[in-house]
Specification:
This protein is mostly helical and about 90 residues long. The protein is built from four helices and no strands. It folds into two domains: about 55 residues, Arc Repressor Mutant, subunit A; about 35 residues.
Length: about 90
Amino acid sequence: MPKQERRTFTSAFKKQLVELYENGKSRAAIVEEYDLTASALDRWIKQAQTTGSFREKDNRSSEENELIALRKENQRLKMEVDILKQAALIMGRK
């Protein structure tokens, strides 16, 4: 079975599908009619109900935001250590 190409959907499209669901159309009917995965539709419904935004950035928990920030800081610190190691090697040669 060939792998399906990843599709992207606009926020307006997602909002329309959520509204169809909220107005009584079944999940199964929406998934079938628009060739979606049930998990994608469920995620859009949850996002619409919690934040009203379909952007992943707007739907992260505070723990997820903290983890991303800590990973960025960790990467920066690793780079600084590498730079200091190189500087120490260069200074040691002089």
